[in-house]
Structure formats: structure tokens, C-alpha cells
Here is the input.
Amino acid sequence: MKAIGLKFGLGLLIVGLLQTAALAWMVYDRVSLLQTGTEIVLKTVPVDPRSLFRGHYVILNYEVSTLDLDGLDGGNTFRRGDKIDVFVRPDDAGNWTPVKVSTATGVPEVLDGTVRLRGKVRYCRRSKTQKKLCSEVAVRYGAEKYFVYKERALELERSRNKRRLRIILAVSDDGQAAVKGIEDNGRRIYNEPLF
Here is the structure.
């Protein structure tokens, strides 16, 4: 009977250690991204969010969330759910704009002065002349929701709707993105804490 209790206790200890290690890895991964990721700045565009069940947050829709593929280098044979690499470069105003897209397979060739954002195709608008090709894709990068208390969310939504809001993202070498800061009308109003 003692042996069963010992095995059960040892099993619980191992499960607890594994859960703690998983949580520690998630925290480390996020902190590492915020500390070492390349900072890029994206302009937001208005969108009307509301969820009574998920708490208060601001939905962030970036100018690079919808891409006109006719004006970009790269492929245009995407389908919904495909992984996509979007290469962005800063313009004269400091906003990062897309210059190339690529299917997210293998190790992509990164252009000088660009940063790779890894995303997932939400939908593809087909070309009118060539039905197998996309003329436009909508992309989700994983940094589209910013959770914040209610009053602050409403303030950020107003700024976003007036097109004054810009989001500073930290981007890792493999294209993962996380919100690192927020600018309102050119002034940095928020920095994401590491812990």
C-alpha cells in the first residue's frame, strides 16, 4: 500500500514539474521575443470589436493585414490557412510596409533592410482574369488582440479609429510577432512589461 502511495506522489511531483517547466518556457519565450526581437512599427486601421465573453481588448488590424499581391514581389497562389511570410521595410515616415510575400516553407531568403513577419492567410480574393491566383490576401500575424482594462480599451479604440494609433511589434528571426509598445499621435504611450 505504501508503494502505491509513493508511486502516486512521485507521479504528481513529475506532473507538477512538467507543468511548471511548460509555464516557465512560455514566459521565457515571450520575454526573449520582447528583449531580442527586431522592433517594427505598423499603422492600424479601424475595426469594430466587441466580445462579452473574452474580457476587454482592442482588436488591431494593421495596414499589412490586407495585401494587394499585384503590387508585391512573390507568389500569388495562396489558399486559406496557408502560412505566409510577409517581408516589410520602413518607409520615410517610419511605418513598415510590405515589399515581398512568400510561402512559409523552408528558410526564406531575407532581403536587405527587411524584416520577415510570419502569418496565416485568412482568405484569398481570386484574380478576375486568372481564377487560380490571388489578387489580395488577408493575413493574421498573431498580434491582433491587445488585452487591456475597459477604459483604456475605449481610449485606444478612439485613437485607432482616428488613425492615430501605431503599434510597435517585436519580431523574432523566425517571424513571430508580439506587441511591445503603443504610439498615439507619434508619442509612445505604452511599453509592454517583461513580467
